[in-house]
Amino acid sequence: MAKRRKLSNPLALTVMVLLAERSMHPYEIAQTLRRRGKQHSVKINFGSLYTVVQNLEKHGYVEVAGVQRQGNRPERTLYGITGAGRAEMLHWLSDLIAVPADEYPVFETALALLPVLPPDEVNELLGDREQAQTVQAAALRGVLAQLGDSLPRVFVVESEYQLHMLEAQLEWIQKFRKEIGEATISGIDEWKSFHETGEVPQDWQDLDAQEAARDPGRE
User: Fold this and answer.
1) Phi/psi at 59 (nearest 5 deg)?
2) 8-state DSSP, 188
């Protein structure tokens, strides 16, 4: 089980990983993230980088490593990772890779609540999503092709994974829409009846009653 951490912002982990390579100032961190295309996989608020670095310093994970002077430009403070920061970075990243987390994506929440919408409307809405995600997938393929020309694959593997997940979701949506359209999904008769009559189908009421009987303490 992943331990509870002093910092939970993934951007803080991203900063520590970059500082494990070499000391940098926050502006250089931002530029490196842009150059490597990490804005496609990490929620990056470039304006908050200074705050993130300050919080890391407060907890002893990074420290001032020097000052950079370039011509007439203002001095920039360089930060480096500490021993404690390196240990935290390694443990945190290892947990994220090895330990599955309950993330509750909003699309899954929407799928859990589908019956409140009519089947035909769900099919149409999923068609809109399919179209939008097809565009997203195409754009991501373009990003991968562009980054792949300048970066080793190890630096873009998260974008590969993101594209794979997009394509898998598209495949599922297409199959599910076909099942709705052909009325082959189980429960669709009750689903349609619910919207045609405005009454909860007896089968659904029976399911709720059965669940309540199995575990009366949950009510």
Assistant:
1) -90, 5
2) H
Listed residue (133, 142, 20, 128) closest to 83, CA to CA:
20
* Other Cβ atoms closer than 10 A to 29: 22
If DSSP states are collapsed to H, E and C, what string results for 78-92? EEEECHHHHHHHHHH
The two tokens of residue 1 are: 């089980």
- 9 phi and psi, to 5 degrees? -70, 120
Q: Which of 110, 113, 114, 167 lies closest to 138, judged by CA?
A: 167
What is the tens place of the pLDDT at every residue in 138-169? 999 999 998 888 889 998 999 999 999 999 99
pLDDT in tens, 33-54: 988 888 888 888 877 899 999 9
C-alpha dist (Å) from residue 43 to 63, 80, 174, 204, 214: 24, 22, 28, 40, 43
Residue 81 to residue 88: CA distance in whole angstroms: 10
Among the listed residues 25, 22, 15, 21, the one whose alpha carbon sits nearest the alpha carbon of residue 73:
25
Please give the mean pLDDT across all residues of the chain. 91
Residues with Cβ < 8 Å from 16, sequence gap 6 or more?
Answer: 56, 61, 62, 81, 85, 86, 88, 89
